[in-house]
Protein: CASP-like protein
Amino acid sequence: MAALGLVGGSNVGKAIAVARPGGWKKGLAIMDFILRLGGIAASLGAAATMGTSDQTLPFFTQFFQFEASYDSFTTFQFFVITMALVAGYLVLSLPFSVVAIIRPHAPGPRLFLIILDTVFLTLATASGASAAAIVYLAHNGNQDSNWLAICNQFGDFCAQTSGAVVASFVAVVILVLLVIMSALALRRH
Amino acid sequence: MAALGLVGGSNVGKAIAVARPGGWKKGLAIMDFILRLGGIAASLGAAATMGTSDQTLPFFTQFFQFEASYDSFTTFQFFVITMALVAGYLVLSLPFSVVAIIRPHAPGPRLFLIILDTVFLTLATASGASAAAIVYLAHNGNQDSNWLAICNQFGDFCAQTSGAVVASFVAVVILVLLVIMSALALRRH
Structure:
């Protein structure tokens, strides 16, 4: 792999570089494409699971019916919007990933992708982590501020939001891998 | 800048590359070092501000004294630990940044830094965002789950934790810039 990289990095000519090596770069580019598909699935799944979370309790008082849905919490609204954005970005990034497969030595698309990947990694992490903080509170509550756990009542709602948080963490891991792989591919060409 | 990059990327020889160009790469490496110093200040500030947040209310009941400190909230404990870790990592990364200044064309240290920067970016974003979610709840409360805002009582505590969250976001922005700058510097050599 190091030898291939050396050949690819030398200025012997683009013809040779395209003909034979660039093998591991092409492999990285194909893996990049597949990981992007996985990231789309994870982020879309997270957005959909959170967006459909809704539970109404079977009992009610005269004035109030107990209902929990994702728009009860600003953080969960943020989560749905951000995850949809990340999924949209990943779909739009697929053509650039294809360009990187066809021309494994062009730094342009990789650079474009690594910068945007970093930005959307931050976005996805922020929404996943803040939703996780709320889910934790919903499960455990907090003594000192007198916030009671609501998961005893809203069990299905809690399960669904927890699932969405897990899916978002999968998307985050995939984005980290994408950034690292792009950095490796940028190293030599 | 593009022309310099081309000269730097050609195989004319390392002697020339060290002698004259690599100018913008060296500039990037120096900026990298300065940004790291800023990141250390921001993350240490965030950890210290959050770690010293503690407020005891001047009134108490027979059984209970009202006190809020960062270890009332698991998320804030996580925040302090993570921010200290990020600050520690940034301190330890300074020597590698110095190596990148001395040898602007060596891809090794840059690659090492961009991978670890990405990981710690994720860590810093996760802790900052989850703390922000709790701070938001402390300020605004939540109707549907009956969590009351505590910032009316614990005003100083809320101000201090909000400040820590802002400092952590500064650290996140700096880490994003570091990753993007490393990607730019890796492009050609």
